[in-house]
Predict the 3D structure of the following.
Amino acid sequence: MMRLSDSIEQFIKELLNEESTEVELKRNELAEYFGCAPSQINYVLATRFSPDHGYLTESRRGGGGYIRIVRVVQAGSQRLMYLVNDRIGDSLGEEECLRLISQLKEQRIVTADEAALMASAVSTRALSVPVPDSLKNAMRAKMMKSMLMTIASRNRNQIQN
């Protein structure tokens, strides 16, 4: 059974198909359609349509209020370099890593097999060594940056060939 948040996310992503990079919605109409409170719509927007997920949201409150969601279109290598240089700091938790990997797979920057390997490399199981979590998170950040640099390099080579 699909959770309400997942259903709302999927609905919005279907509206943002390949051709459309922007959609405008009315929060109350969307809440009515899904039979939920407008705050549930806000939750989905905040957690699944943030800049880290590749989206910008803009909203206007009031009677004629709306929500505009814009998918930020970046080429694969450009997106990867943003992640390496701006998004991933010196520390990255497992959940954050898995979210980034999922986005890369969704955006077809990595294959499902590559995503599975990446997720395995940053998993708690792979890092089950007797060191503090802060060190494990620092290792995850370095590993993610290294993997992303390799993928960006591969993508550049494919474009040149």
The two ends are 45 Å apart (CA to CA). The first strand starts at residue 22 and ends at 25. The mean pLDDT is 83. Residues 4-71 form a domain with the Phenylalanyl-tRNA Synthetase; Chain B, domain 1 fold (CATH 3.30.56.130).
